[in-house]
Structure formats: C-alpha cells, structure tokens
Amino acid sequence: MSIFKHFLSFGNKSTCCDSIVGARAKVVETIDNAAGSGEVKVGTQLWAARSVEDDVTFAVGDTVQVVACEGVRLVCRG
Q: Are residues 27 and 61 in contact, defined by beta-carbon separation less than 8 angstroms?
C-alpha cells in the first residue's frame, strides 16, 4: 500500500522552480523578449529568462525578481 501513496503524492511535491519564485536574480545576458534572449543567475544557478512584459528589457547587471517559472525559463520583472 505504501508504494501507492508514493505515486499518489507525486503531484504534491514542490519543485526547484517553486523555491525560486520570489527570489532576486542578477541579469547575466540581456533580457529581450523580442530577440528571444535572456539569462539570469539565482544563487549559483543560471536560468534562461524572459520579461513579464514584451516591451520591457533588462540589461546585464540589473537585478530582477522572479515571478513565475515556465518550464526551464524564469519570468522576471524589475
């Protein structure tokens, strides 16, 4: 019976993204949705990133806040 509990509880586990939402990140590659570019560093990890708003870009060195995670890409705002 315990193996069934393990599989049934699988959907309730938190992910790495869950712990990153709300964190501050440093822009290491310009975030520009139109160009499809963007990378941030959260702690020691590098993540692909995009801006919440398509017309807002962030330069290298800017600090942004992670507001969501879409797959392996973080969604950020200033």
A: yes
- Residue 57 CA to residue 21 CA, distance in Å, equals 19
Q: What is the pTM of this model?
A: 0.79
Name the stretches of the chain with pLDDT < 70.
1-16
How large is the greatest C-alpha to C-alpha distance in the chain, in angstroms?
53
Q: Are strands 45-51 and 63-70 parallel, antiparallel or unpaired?
A: unpaired
User: What is the Cα–Cα distance from 78 to 59, expressed in whole angstroms?
Assistant: 11
Say whether 9 sits in a helix, a strand or coil: coil
Q: Are strands 73-77 and 45-51 parallel, antiparallel or unpaired?
A: parallel
